[in-house]
Amino acid sequence: MTVSTIKKVFPYPIQQVWNLMTSLDTYAWRSDISEIKVLDDQKFQERSLDGITTTFTITKKEPYRVYAFSIENKNMSGSWEGCLYDTDAGTQVIFTEEVRVKKFYMKPFIKGFLQKQQETYMQDLANALDKQG
């Protein structure tokens, strides 16, 4: 199992950060996906720009606190958890992703892939929040 965690503080209210993170209808701000398809109230799929479909099953959703789900695609399976904290500086988010690769040759590259993916998401989130003001 490979684990990657990233932390960041956004100078915006926790409700604003939460609403953007959890909206499955508003994803144009994400630079790394081409589509989100809602399957039911607990499952959705994201299609990456390179055509890989990942299925997410929501395992925990505590408004303004925790958003978590399991992850499954042809290359990996695992979990993702996003925790939000109200601070004097705004909203601190901590994202932790744990994955197991399905193809042995991917193992040496997965940590770097996860870190890049998390950094892209954080930058996209920051840009979208800045646009909202």
TrEMBL record:
InterPro entries referenced in this protein's UniProt entry, alphabetically: Polyketide_cyclase/dehydratase (IPR019587), START-like_dom_sf (IPR023393)
Protein name: Polyketide cyclase/dehydrase/lipid transport protein
